[in-house]
Each structure stands twice: as C-alpha cells, then as structure tokens.
Amino acid sequence: MAERVLMKGNEAIAEAAIRAGCRHYFGYPITPQTEIAAYMAKKMPKIGGVFLQAESEIASINMVYGAAAAGVRVMTSSSSPGVSLKAEGLSYIAGSDVPALVVNVQRGGPGLGGIQPSQSDYFQATKGGGHGDYRMIVLAPASVQEMASLTIKGFNLADKYRMTSMILADGTIGQMMEPISFEDAEIETYDKPWALTGTDCKREHNVVNSLYLKPEALEITNMERYERYKIVEENEAMWEEYMMEDAEYCVVAFGIASRVAKNAVATARAEGIKVGLIRPITLWPFPKKALEDAADKVKGFISVELNMGQMIEDVRLYTKCKRPVALCNRCGGMIPSPEEVLESIRKAQKGEF
Amino acid sequence: MAVVFSKPKALADVPFHYCPGCPHGIIHRLVAEVIDELGIEGKTIGVAPVGCAVMAYDYFNCDMIEAAHGRAPATATGVKRSRPENIVFTYQGDGDLASIGMAETVHSAARNENITVIFVNNAIYGMTGGQMAPTSLPGQVTQTSPYGRDVNHCGWPIKVSEMLSTLDGPEYIARVAVNNVKNVRNAKKAIKQAFQNQVDGKGFSLVEVVSACPTNWGMTPQKALEWMETDMIPYYPLGVYKDRSAAKEEK
Amino acid sequence: MKTTQILIAGFGGQGVLFAGKFLAYKGLTADKQVSWLPSYGPEMRGGTANCSIVISDQPVGSPIITTPDVLVAMNLPSLLKFVDSVVPGGQIFIDSTLIGEKVERTDVTVHYIPATQIAKDAGFSTLANMVLMGKLMKECDAVTFEGNKDTLKAFIPAKKENLIDLNCQALQAGYDF
C-alpha cells in the first residue's frame, strides 16, 4: 500500500485531479473550498499546468467550457452560492456534450446563507440547477480518501460519457484532515475527435454548440443524450451497504451525514436494534436497486440529511413508497448528532415515522 | 477568364441568414480574408456570441464554439489557455460584449489574454428585435426606448474602445467602421493587425467595428450608412486607441 | 478497540489547529486511524477557534465531536462552552495562566497547567499550545510521547526547521510539569 499522508479533503481533491491528468483549473474564491484553488495555484505552474483565478464564477465555468471543448481535462470548484452562478455554464456544457469536473463544497443556504457544512444543494445537483433537460454525474464523498478517489473517477466518467461530473462534498469533508494514500490513479483515456484542435485544413470543422433552431433537431439531440444517460444509470450507480444483511430498518445517508449515521447505527446495534445503512456514493445515478431491494425486506427507512429533506424524495420514489420514510435532519450549517440519529432509529423501531 | 473576386477560403459556402443590407456579411468576409492571408485557418478556433452572429459557427470553416451570452472572452480564454498554439478569436455584438459580458470583456483585456476580439457595435440588439443596447445613442428610438434613449433615466452609452484603452493590460484597441470603401479597407487593416498581434504573442487585441442595423433602425441600407456617418461615428470616433508595440517603437 | 475524542479550543492565533494537527500526526505515525476537523471561517482570524481530533484503532465514524473524552481549553469562553460536554471520566486540560476559574464537575479529571507562563519563562512564548500537548501525552494514552521530533518533521516545512527543537522543548516542559 502506498504511504499514508494526512491531508485536508479539499487538498485531496486538488492533488487527485493533478494525478488524474488535469492541468487546467479555473475558479473564484469562496469559503469553504478555497484550499483547492490555493493548492492548484501552487502546483500548476510547476508542472506546466494552468491555474487561473477568474473574475467571477460565471467566467470560470465558461473558461472550463472552452477548455473542455479544446479537449483537455479541466475543472473548477466552488461552494453553493458560487455554484448557482455556474448554473448557466453547467447547462451549456451539458448541451454541448463536453466533459468537465465541477466541485461543490456545500455550505448552508439559501442566499448568502452561511459558511458551515450543508447538503442543501442536493436538488440543484441531482435535478438540474441550470436550465433545460440534462443530468450530471453526482459523486458524494464521505471521507478524505474518497475526495481523492471520486475525483479521479469523476474525470474518467466525464470523459467516458461526455458529461459533467460533480463532486458534491460539504464544508466538513472539505476542511477535515484524514490519512490518505494515493494508489496509482487509474486514468482512462478516451478519444476526443469532436475537440477543437484546429482543422489543420485536413478535416471538416468541428463545432461545439448547444443551439438548435429546428425543434426536431433539438428533440433528437436531447433524446440521444438521454439514451446515454440511461447507460450511465444502468452501469455507474455506486453505494455502500453497512449491516444491511439482517436489517429491519434502513438509514439512508450520504457524505458527512453517513459518517454520523454510521456511529448511530453501531450504537443502535449494540442496543439490539437491527438497523443498517445504505450510503449512496453516486447521487445521480441514484442507487435505485439498493433501495428497491431494501424496500422488500425492511420495515422502514430513515433519511439523514443536512437540509430540510431533499434526498428523502428520492428514497420515497425508488422504494415506491412501500415503506414509511422518516426524516432526521439539521440544516443551515448544523449537523445532527449521532444521538439525534439514534433517537430517530429508536422511534422507527416503535413504528413512529 | 481571370478571377477578380472570390469568397475567402475561411468562409463556408453557405448562405448567410443576415438581413438585406446588414454589414455582418462584410465583417465576416474581412475576418475570413485576414485568416486566409495569414494562412492560419487550420489552427484557428472561433468563438461565436449570442446575438445576430450566433450562427457564425456555420459560416467560418475553422473549428468553432458557441459561447453563452457575453461569455465569449471567458470561453476563448479557456480554449487559448488549453491550446496556446492555436489562434482564438471571438466575434461579438454590443449587447453581448458591452452589457451582459462586460466583466468578461474588461478582465480578459486586463489579463492581456492573447486572443482577438471582433466587436460589432451597431447600437442596438438585433436578434431580439431592436431593443436599446449599451451603445445606443442618446435620443435613439428603439423598442425599449420608444421615446428615445433618455440618459437621465437609463444612462449614457458606453464607449468601449476608450474605456478599455485606459487599462494597462490590452495590447491593441482600435475603432473602425464599415460604412464606405475607405473605412472598410481600414477596418481590414485593423483586423489583420489584431490577428497578427496574436500570432506574435502580443496579447489582447480588440477591434470595435461601427456597423449598422437597417432593419431595426428602421432605415433603408443606404440611409443606415448615412446615419452611421452623421450620428454614429461622431459619437464613436474612429482610430487606434491603444497600440502598445507601436507606442514602444516610437519611444 | 479504543477511540479517543479530543477537542482543543481557544482563541485564533494560540496554535489550536497546529496542536490538533500534531496529535493527528502522532496518531498517523502510530498507525492509528485519525481525523482532524477544524472550525473554519472568519473566527479563525482572532475569534474562537477549535478543532476535533479522533484517534482510533478502527475506522473513524463521525469526525464531529459532541462528547469529547479530552478537552483542552486555552481560554475561558472555550472552557465555559465545552466543559459540560466532556464525558464522565474524561479529562480536561486548562491553561491556568489564562483561565482563573476552577472546574466544578467532580466526575472528570482536571489538569491545571500554567502553560502560557511556562512557555514565556522558557523563552518560547508562542508555544503554550505545545506545553499543553506535552502534559496531555503524559496523562492520556491515546498517543505516546516517543518520536515527537519525527512527527514534527512530517508537517513543519523544512525552511522552518529551527521550530522543531523549540516545539520539542515545549512538549518536554509540559510533560515534566
């Protein structure tokens, strides 16, 4: 095994991106993700890469769009209010089918909100954010190690499917340090015949574009894109199951909430409550199958979230409302304690949802 | 039979969608001729705007990308920083460049981004049907200034070339017009200079082309050209506003 | 299987985060599972700062500490804020140069160390944090006192190497108190 080093989650993303072959970063400062930019600013010039602090989030995502169209591995990072500004570019990138990696180290909202950790951009990340019919692959790391591994995975998936991969983290995982080891990154490379490289006067010109004035053409393009999304849904859903073998109750939580929930599940097990945890690692595609299967064997679900209840809608959707789903949540930068989650589990056992 | 005039190679052999009398065709041709003359078609990447020239990606034979409204300089920055060996230009109108995209314009100029910007100023939003632009003249009647642009209510026009030339960043800022043969020739010179600067690695070069919009101005093409002469050019004087290399040579 | 949750709190600038980082590295070099979570935001620049360190024989669950086994308090507001959250049987380390108050709880072990004074007298006035860490390592078995120099080398940049010896001296002073 490679050497273990202590690293902040944000720095792990930056280092992993470089190891994944990313040499272009465009961003704008915002708490609590600025370590990513700082790391890139330090490293990129030394390895022949580009770090550029843009004038705004809007400019930075459009620089990402240009670089992605030019065929390079490119990324930007921000936090919730900044990602709202990037929504325009996310839609263009999706509409033009170019690959990019976007990091959202979430903080409390809406509006300027706060700077403490949150998961309240779940809807924005998984259901849209920008305008139009489109999807992004949404990866939700729960540890510093995963901040790195999912960044590398995110680049690979983005290139494979010509879409945006979003790392949906939060202030806690971004700021915390944990040991991490960088195994040799598995970098997948894909041909990019569509990229803007200059025609060299030897081929037809490439056009990267999302404008289709003929509705028939736009409809076909969107439908083809959704065929691709279907393949992603079939092949790329990732999740972790913890103590689910004999579980009668199922906690569903991602990111930092899943860490808290895991503690609560362990304590509940010690009390004799048969409870397990499903942790979605991809939020889109959502691990439908895991939830469907669980719905056939457990008595109820508890969705633990750092928001007013967003993922719970998908839990209900993919369990087809077969079982009751309770919400255990804090928001605005607050995090539920293991005791609060435990209390929800105890209530569930009593049939209180 | 001798060929005395032909379409530049860098222009695709497709009909333009522009209105009769619209100078976009002339400006496209000037850009394409420059690309031909510099022999850079194979490595040029163009960035189309949102506005009347939105479909410029169909008209130029080089690789093209369609940017979001106003973001062309940011998108061009992304392309150029990824492929510094390529020649990257944007083609933008006044609403795109001087209103919604002003931040991107100013900051790419301040960074002396090594790109070429063709800025077509016709003092109106064309594609959306003739609304007031950031460069509409005081008193100018448009769909959204039906009683004439009232500067007390909605402010003054923005003189982009003058403003950008106050920055230390950019290499070359010039304003030209396409209302008569002499001015068209000068326009081509400036556009060529703006591309040559990029080839030479000198940095941000912007050519503001004072143009016309007969359709939305509600004028015949002939009258529109006259209005450019009598109203537009006096407000937007032609000339080279900044040329760092030339200034250095003089010293 | 053992898990120790340590909360260090004080003013920004007292080296709260640095002390926590040191403990996390100590855990790392002892092949333990660790997490280090700072408070972040504007309070880092002069207000209150704290960080949570979990050192464990098994993978760390939540890095967020609500009931610390060990509290290190470097100013009064921090002590008042966190004193009641310490688990019964836990330990509290107090910089008694800066905190005059005594802890009323009787179900915890409290160590009063005049860390700021010790550091000042020894000529490394900014290292009260490390004096406290020295004492903590003596009283708490989550980490051992050996190998401090190597641990410090792992995260103090080479150009600031002169700081390593000073930190070692501060740790020793706390250990010896």
Helix run count of chain C: 6
- Annotated CATH topology of the largest domain in chain A: Rossmann fold
How many domain regions of chain C? Answer: 1
What is the helix tally of chain A?
12
- CATH homology superfamily name of the largest domain in chain A: Thiamin diphosphate (ThDP)-binding fold, Pyr/PP domains
At the first level of CATH, the class of chain C is Alpha Beta
Any low-confidence stretches of chain A, pLDDT <50, length ≥5?
none
How many angstroms separate the termini of chain C?
A: 30 Å
Helix/strand/pairing class of chain A, anyone? alpha/beta
Order of helices and strands of chain C: EHEEEHEEHHHH
Give the end-to-end Cα distance of chain A, rounded to a whole number of Å: 44 Å
Strand order of the largest sheet of chain A: 3-2-4-5-7-6-13
Largest interface: A-B, 40 and 37 residues
Give the helices and strands of chain A as they follow along the chain. EHEHEHEHEHEHEHEEHEEHEEHEHEH
The proportion of strand residues of chain A reads 15-25%
Percent strand of chain C? 15-25%
Task: Please give the structural blueprint.
The complex is a heterotrimer of chains A (353), B (251) and C (177).
Chain A: E1 5-8, H1 9-19, E2 24-27, H2 34-43, E3 50-53, H3 57-69, E4 74-78, H4 80-96, E5 100-106, H5 122-127, E6 137-139, H6 144-161, E7 164-170, H7 171-175, E8 177-180, E9 207-208, H8 215-235, E10 239-242, E11 249-252, H9 255-270, E12 275-280, E13 282-284, H10 288-297, E14 300-305, H11 311-318, E15 325-329, H12 338-349
Parallel strand pairs in A: 2-3, 2-4, 4-5, 5-7, 6-7, 11-12, 11-14, 14-15
Antiparallel strand pairs in A: 1-8, 6-13, 10-12
Helix pairs in contact in A: 1-2, 1-6, 3-4, 9-12
Chain B: H1 24-38, E1 44-48, H2 56-59, E2 63-66, H3 72-82, E3 87-93, H4 94-100, H5 102-110, E4 116-121, E5 124-125, E6 131-132, H6 151-154, H7 160-164, E7 172-177, H8 181-199, E8 205-210, H9 214-217, H10 221-235, E9 239-243, H11 244-250
Chain C: E1 3-11, H1 16-29, E2 33-38, E3 48-56, E4 70-73, H2 76-82, E5 91-95, E6 109-113, H3 115-121, H4 128-139, H5 148-155, H6 162-176
Parallel strand pairs in C: 1-4, 4-5, 5-6
Antiparallel strand pairs in C: 1-3, 2-3
Helix pairs in contact in C: 1-5, 3-4, 4-6, 5-6
